[in-house]
Amino acid sequence: MALYSEKVMDHFTHPRNVGIIENADGVGEIGNAKCGDIMKMYLKVEDNVITDVKFETFGCGSAIATSSMATEMIKGKSIDEALKLTNKAVAEALDGLPAHKMHCSVLAEEAIKAAVKDYYDRNGIAYDKSQFPDEDCPHCHE
Ligand code: FES
């Protein structure tokens, strides 16, 4: 069996939603403690719905593929739905990732959460802090 699914290869070679959003409503940047790679996620939000999302990464192929899939999965969805997206759901949507690359998928999930938190902070919206990774140690809860 090939190490990577066709969907992973597709999203890695043709990543969706790569880039930046000028005047984004929320921006999140996360580093992966396991490998040092970084991910930046930009959100445009209207009426609690994510109308646009883009990402930039300095990460591996699995990080690119999971971020690409994750952005497709949250585009047009409400913020609440986006916050429920787990790295496992993204990996499943890609027909799986090798076990030793699962940590790469955490980058996308946490960058989305960080961008939503930034959106909440900018707009003075109250939120439950436990929904978000601890900023000082984003990977302790893996
Ligand atoms: Fe760093 Fe995959 S090895 S994100």
UniProtKB/TrEMBL annotation:
Domain of life: Bacteria
InterPro entries: NIF_FeS_clus_asmbl_NifU-like (IPR017787), NIF_FeS_clus_asmbl_NifU_N (IPR002871)
Gene Ontology BP term (one): iron-sulfur cluster assembly
Annotated SUPFAM superfamilies: SufE/NifU
Domain spans labelled NIF system FeS cluster assembly NifU N-terminal: 4-123
GO MF annotations, alphabetized: iron ion binding; iron-sulfur cluster binding
Name of this protein: Fe-S cluster assembly scaffold protein NifU
Natural source organism: Candidatus Faecousia excrementigallinarum
Phylogenetic lineage: Bacteria, Bacillati, Bacillota, Clostridia, Eubacteriales
